[in-house]
Amino acid sequence: MRPEIIEVNARSYRWMHRPVVVVCVDGCEPAYLHAAVRDGVAPYLARMMETGANLLADCVVPSFTNPNNLSIVTGAPPSVHGICGNYFFDRESGEEVMMNDPKYLRAGTVLAAFADAGAAVAVVTAKDKLRKLLGHRMKGICFSSEKADQVTLAENGIEGVVDLVGMPVPSVYSAELSEFVFAAGVKLMQTRRPDLMYLSTTDYVQHKAAPGSPAANAFYAMMDRYLAQLDELGATIVLTADHGMNDKHDEQGKPNVIYLQDLLDEWYGAAKARVILPITDPYVVHHGALGSFATVYAPDDAAAAQWIERVREIPGVQAALTRDEAARRFELPPDRIGDLVVLGERSTVIGTSASRHDLSALEVPLRSHGGLSEQQVPLICNRPVKGIASGRRLRNFDALDLALNHAQ
Ligand SMILES: [Zn+2]
Predict the structure, then answer these.
(1) Chain centre to alpha carbon of residue 267
(2) Which one of 107, 109, 176, 360 is most buried, by most CB atoms within 10 A?
(3) What is the DSSP letter of 405?
(4) Which residues pair with 87 in a beta bridge?
(5) Across the chain, which distance is largest between two alpha carbons, in Å?
(6) How many CB atoms lie within 10 A of CB 160?
(7) Distance from Cα 147 to the centre of ligand 1, integer Å
(8) Strands 376-381 and 236-240
(9) Residues with Cβ < 8 Å from 387, sequence gap 6 or more?
(10) CA–centroid distance, residue 242 to ligand 1 (Å)
(11) How far are the Cα atoms of 140, 142, 193, 204 from residue 149, in angstroms, in the given order?
(12) Is the peptide bond between 315 and the residue preceding it cis, with omega within 30 degrees of 0?
């Protein structure tokens, strides 16, 4: 017999009585939705926001993709699930490593718990880097558009995805990579009707195109058509984002970068500090590995205390926090961040050394994320929601709570 309530990471979720789809639109600054609705290209989203629930929520800081996707599927902050960036410095091994291996995950997902209790669960993500984390220990369907032509029943719980979706496998740098996610979601709902589905796109478009621009509106119009189909199929839909997105350049289009490693080398000697940019991943063409969040390892506490005072004074720095301050304020795992956490203000990104960033591939002025200025994201549902306490600070990782416990 299936349970009424599923408990995961100290939160409880009611069993669904109709299919639930949670959509994480990568880099969906609320202004993208407003512009698409205003310009009349997203009639379904307009209806969803008017007749359902149209809320705003705070994402996890660092406002990056992996920490937030993992927060959404675990319903918990990084202090619980352990994933606080794409990349970190593993003090135990003394190496800088990618954090996309499930061995770094410290909590189970709500998706896996429902699957264990007998729900049919499906996950589709744009980039393959997230697939193993999102599908960790989950029985069901889990694949990426990036590697949709390589799925196997054993690894992904499904075969023949390319035929099912009827779209060729798109380039990893394209809007179509996200379209494939939605198209797959609709086909899965039509053919298999999963009880719980998680769809996660990529922010390729948002890194290049500002809200209301033709490319952005075309993307949201595409999304709108698929969401309308999911709604017609009877799903409860909650849409949120992993983070927002802002311009990070001056009026001439030149990126505003603080090269923090260069500054610390100049002030305190070469390589005394180790600056880590947790945005770093294998796909850096569209942002040059530049975001508004950095963490710094110092040789000892005295150095950290001395450096932080000076780092706070750098123009463009919004905040510099000690490890403990950052871990408390942003609910981060203290053992996976450096001695300092440094945030750039709205239009400023933080780099390591100028020589280590290849900005030649940036075709358009830099837009990026990572800081507090990208923390506000949409949290919308196609049905009205009930029982949300007034004054509650909503998070993007309340998406499943909203869908399962509050949607009418
Ligand atoms: Zn993202």
Answers:
(1) 34
(2) 109
(3) I
(4) 98
(5) 65
(6) 10
(7) 19
(8) antiparallel
(9) 405, 406
(10) 6
(11) 18, 13, 22, 21
(12) no
Tokens of 53: 């629930």
CA of 373 to the centre of ligand 1 (A): 14
Question: How far is 271 from 251, CA to CA, in rounded Å?
Answer: 33
- C-alpha 269 to ligand 1 mean position (Å): 34
- What pLDDT is stored for residue 285 in this prediction? 55
Short-list 161, 159, 101, CA closest to 130: 101
pTM greater than the 0.85 cutoff: yes
CA of 299 to the centre of ligand 1 (A): 32
Question: Positive or negative, the Cα torsion across 75, 77, 80, 85?
Answer: positive
Residue found by looking up tokens 């508004």 in the block: 292
**How many residues does this entry show for the chain?**
408
Residues in the chain predicted with pLDDT less than 50, given as ranges, are: none
User: Mind listing the pLDDT tens digit for each residue in 109-144?
Assistant: 999 999 999 999 999 999 998 999 999 999 999 999
In angstroms, rounded to a whole number, what is the distance separating the alpha carbons of residues 336 and 97? 11
Per DSSP, the residues of 89-117 read EETTTTEEEES-SGGG--S--HHHHHHHT
CA-based nearest residue to 387, from 369, 401, 368: 401
Cα of 213 from ligand 1 centre, angstroms? 19
pLDDT at 225: 98
Amino acid 283: pLDDT: 61
List the shell of residues around ion ligand 1, using CB closer than 5 Å.
Answer: 26, 65, 203, 242
Distance 87 CA to ligand 1 centre (A): 14
Give the SS3 label for residue 307: helix
State pLDDT tens for residues 254-274: 999 999 999 999 999 999 999
Report residue 337 as tokens: 């961040």
